[in-house]
Amino acid sequence: MPAQHTRRAVLGASIALAGTGVLTACAGRDVTADHSAMNHPAPSGTTVPEGYVSPDGPEVAAAEQRRGAGPEREVTLTATPSRLDLGGGHTVSSWAYGDRLPGKEIRVTAGDTLALTLANHLPQPTSMHWHGLALRNDMDGVPGLTQRAVEAGADFTYRFTVPDPGTYWFHPHSGVQLDRGLYAPLIVDDPKEPLGYDKEWIVVLDDWVDGVDGSTPDAVLQELTGGNGHSGHAMQSTASPASGGPSRMLTGATSELLGGDAGDVAYPYYLVNGRVPEDPSAFTARPGDRIRLRIINAGGDTAFRVALGGHRMTVTHTDGFPVRHTTTDALLIGMGERYDVLVTAGDGVFPLTALAEGKKASAMAVLRTGSGAAPGASVRPKELDGELVTADRLSPDASVALAAREPDRTVRMRLTGSMEAYDWAFDRKPYTADQRHPVKAGERVRMEFHNPTAMWHPIHLHGHTFALSGGAAGARKDTAIVLPRQTLTVDFDADNPGLWMLHCHNLYHAEAGMMTVLGYRL
Ligand code: C2O
Ligand code: CU
User: Fold this and answer.
1) Which of 100, 85, 99 is nearest to 276 (CA)?
2) Maximum Cα–Cα distance for the chain, whole Å?
3) Is the CB of 509 under 6 A from ligand 1?
4) More confident of the two residues 95 and 10
5) Nearest CA, atom 1, ligand 1
6) What span, in angstroms and rounded, lies between the C-alpha atoms of 414 and 436?
7) What is the reported pTM?
8) Which are the contacts of 487, defined by CB distance < 8 A and separation ≥ 6?
9) 157 near 60, Cβ under 8 Å?
10) Percentage of the chain modeled with pLDDT above 90
C-alpha cells in the first residue's frame, strides 16, 4: 500500500505533466489507454487551460478540511479478471472487483474517512470513480483529469471524507470497463437515520454482454462507432464487430416512456445482482417486514422500469438524497441513477422485475416471505403498467431542498449526435480533457441541457448534487434523464472546487464523446 506522501508525490507528477499538455494529446479514453505517451513530449500543441483550480490545489485541500475527518475505514479491493457465474448455466470470463458480481458493497458512515486501496490486477490501466459523492476532487478517479490511471499491476489508495449519507456506487472511469463486471454499491449510513425499517435489500441492475459468444464492451464500442471507437479519427465502415462475434447493435428499439430510441446495444442478458432471471437471486424476509430497497442502475445502455409484484413502493430517496415520500407502482431508472424505496412485505413469493425499457427483455430477482415456487423468468407484474414515478414527479425533503436563489451564471448545452454517425457530444465537440466550462466557487449555477436528438440521455455531474427543474421545488439528483426534444434545467451551488466531469451515463455515448468538464476558476 503506498504511503500518503507517495500518493501525493504521484499526483503532483501527474499535474505537472498535465501542464505540458500530453494528457490531452489524444482525447478521452486514450489518456488512460496510452499512458506510455505520458512519458514523452506532446505530439500536439494542446495545453491545459490556465486559471482553473487544480485537483491537487490548495482550494481542494481547504474544501476537504471543512468536511472534517472522521474515523478511518480501511478497505482493500482487487480489480481482477474473473470467471463469473450468472446463473442458469451461464458462466463468463470478465473483470470484477474481488471475484464477485456485483462487487461486495462498501458500507461507511457519513463523516468517515474512507481509505480504499485499489489493487489493479487487470491487463490494462484502471481507475475508481465514486459516483454521486461530493468528495475532494483529486480522489474523483478520472484519469487524465484528476489523477493518472492506476497502471496494470499497480495500486492506488483513495482517501477522502465521505460527505453525505445515501445510496451510491463506484466504478472505473476508464474506457468501457464499467460494462464488464466492475461495479459495486457504496452505502453511506446516516448516523441519525430517520427511516425505520426491518431489512435492507440492495438491488443492482445491469445489462450484460461481456464474455458472451466472444463479445466484449470494447468490441461493442467498435461496432457502434464503425470501427474507430473514437471520433476525430479516420472512419472505416464495418457493419459487423471486428471480433467476429455476433452483432450487438440495436436498431429500431423505441420506448414511449423514453420518448424515442430506447438504446444502442442489444445485450444478451439483463441481470439483478449478477443473476439472469431464469436463476434469480432471492431475498428472504418475513411477511409484514418493512424493507428498504436500494436500487442502483449499473447498466451501460439500458433504462429499467422496476416494480415489485403485489406491492406498492414508497419512494424515500433518489441519488442518495431524501425526497418527500411518494407511493408508486413502478419506477423508471436511467443508468447511474439510484432510488431507495420502502415496501411492506406480503406473504408469499414475489418477482422484483426490471424491464429493460424498450428492449423486449427483463431482469428479475425474487422476494420470498413464504413458501411457493419462484415466478417464471418472463413474468410481467401488473404494477409495471401501473402508476409510474419519474424523477420530475418528486419533491425534495425539506432538509435537502436547495434554497431559493437567482442563478449567478447559466451554462447552456446542446446534446448532439446520432446513432448512425455515432458522434454523441455536447455542442458537437467530442470530449477532450482540456475542455472547461467555467464556474466560480460561491456561485449558484444553472445548467440547461437541450436535447434535439432522437434519444434520451442520462446526464451526470461529478462532485455535486443539483436540484431538478431549477430550484427549491426540484428533487436533488446527480444523474438525470433528458428526454428527446426536451430541455432539462438544473441548479446547483458551486461549493466543491476542482475539475468535474459532466457526461452522459450511457457508457457508449460518453466514450463516443458526450463528456465535458466543468472547471472552477481561480
Ligand atoms: Cu458513474 Cu462519470 O460516472
Ligand atoms: Cu447519451
Assistant:
1) 85
2) 68
3) no
4) 95
5) 131
6) 15
7) 0.90
8) 448, 449, 450, 451
9) no
10) 85
